[in-house]
Amino acid sequence: MKHGFIKVAAAVPFVRVADCQYNIEHIEAQVRQADAQGVEIMTFPELCITGYTCGDLFLKPFLIRQAQESLLELAHRTADTEVLFIVGMPILIESQLFNAAVALQGGRILGAIPKTYLPNYREFQEARWFSPAKDLQLATIQIGEQQVPIGYNVLFRSGGVAIGIEICEDMWTPYTPGTRLTLYGAQIIFNLSASNELVGKNTYLRSLISGLSSQNLCGYVYASCGYGESSTDTVLTGKAFIAEVGKLLVEMPRFVYEERMIISDIDISRIDYDRMSSNSFNASVADHTERGLLTEIPFRLRSEEASHDIDRTIDQNPFYPDNGTRDERAEETFDIQVSALVQRLRHMGAEHAVLGISGGLDSTLALLVTVGAFDFLGLDRKGIIGVTMPGLGTSSHTKGNALRLMELLGITQRTIDIKDACLRHFEAIGHDPAVQDVVYENAQARERTQILMDLANAYNAPVIGTGDLSELALGWCTYNGDHMSMYAVNAGLPKTGVQLVVAYLGRSERFGHELREVLRSIVETPISPELKPVDASGAIQQKTEDVVGPYELHDFFLYNFLGFGYEPSKIYYLACLAFKDKYDEESIYRWLRTFYYRFFTQQYKRTCMPDGPKVSRVSLSPRGDWRVPSDVAPTAWLRELDSLRPS
């Protein structure tokens, strides 16, 4: 494996019903194709050596003998490959016939798994030919010269990787064999299937596979019979899915008259992290497993040096992946924020709210959330006190956007200039205003917060915080300045999420057509705290991303660090893949090092952060997801990162 990823495949070959020789030739070709692409484990469909639709031919000893001889030949012909592959075939044990999956690697037959549940309804009549796994009396069988383990409580293991196998109908039951095997440690379930085409069935199947991988915190690889199977009463066109913890990584196109294979990489380390983090999963393990029931069969994985790069898309924005659902997620995010603020305002009995409005992204979204909450509660928007506080670095552009935004939303506007107050403060503490250092910047942030807090007292209202998750992660906020509020509605959103939600609200015209242009202007304005003077033309000079780095990188780092528990080397590897066309490796390394240093050293700001809603997998709330001491050291993370420095 490379960085915890294991390359898997699901293949659908052409078959001829009852022509085992033809079938293994096509299986071998796909095994070799997968092996050349670095696949570690792959599955073929149910009964693929004979064909699924043989009917009463399954009761003929000649076909069963042909299947076994073809299996032995297939093992011999693939002895020079490294991939572990799983095929389906009928296996005769004494007088009983079993629908089985057989695993092979490097010319050896490693083990066989009989089907647990046999469908015997409507178009499926498997009980006519096969016996269920519970009728199995033996633990090993003779196939050629090999003694092969057989059973349904079987895992295949290589080091820290374990896989389980189930067959078609098994996955449609309330307590699936795959579920049982995940509780015994299988991180990936492979399903050999023969699922016919019915209108609407594929959508149901897709949701079933996604749900099983989510519920069992596992990967799921599914392959179903394709062309060549009989169409006497059913249509089998070939379909396959690869899923990981609720997400479909890749799906095979249907109704394509050709042999097909899908390949992707399943993240074993992410699965292990999710299971370690889920006390409910581990409680289920304790409730539903017994010692001594499981058989483990070893197999081999390639060395990390021999592993191929991963075959899956790495989202640049894992908070809001570019998969066609961004607008839906943006709307849901906004609705969560509004619902959270509605509850807080209702609890307080508040009819007013106070916000600082800068004309930037964060305060814009916080204001829109507040307006949404007031509208929901039937409160007059004039009860929202929006305060713009031009300081020593405010540009006319952002001030104009702030005023226009408040005007269009119909809230109460206040403009309080803080320049003179800050200059008097500098004089009082003996600071030269020509020295534009952290004192110069933070004094403005704290002056603004003081004004908002005092207005909150005057209106008996909460100060609605505007800071976001990315700023909290990097500590890019002034302690006891913009860091503090009575309720922080953006605390669960990364900066890239704030951009997407504001842009979506503009396009959707949720607050009216006239707001569209001002929201577009705000989204396109460079991100800045505006605490240092503008240039001679009035343009913003102080740009946040020039100092701390691109937020899209930091949000990528944050999600993978907290959401999946990845180590620095893996995050660096994934970032280099995801952003290869945008940033060079040196830049990614530089900003990843900045991320780790700032994240660890700024924990004290998060330890006392105000309440705010969690809206995604990642949260930094000290009351919920992230509880660490403020003096934790980043040394180990930085040390590993230093070993990755690009030459």
Mind explaining what this structure looks like?
The chain is an alpha/beta fold and 647 residues long. The chain folds into two domains: 7-306, Carbon-nitrogen hydrolase (Nitrilase/N-carbamoyl-D-aminoacid amidohydrolase, 4-Layer Sandwich), CATH 3.60.110; 326-642, Rossmann fold, CATH 3.40.50. It is built from 20 helices and 20 strands. The strands form five sheets. Strands 13-12-11-10-9-8-15 form a seven-stranded mixed sheet, covered by helices on one side. It has a six-stranded mixed sheet with strand order 5-4-3-2-1-14. The longest helix has 23 residues, at 326-348. The two termini are 24 Å apart.
Enumerate the spans where pLDDT stays under 50 for 5 or more consecutive residues: none
Task: Count the beta strands.
Answer: 20
Largest sheet: 7 strands, mixed
**What is the typical, i.e. mean, pLDDT?**
95
Overall outline: elongated
- Fraction in helix: 25-40%
The CATH top-level class label of the largest domain: Alpha Beta
Q: Would you summarize the structure shown here?
A:
The chain has 20 helices and 20 strands.
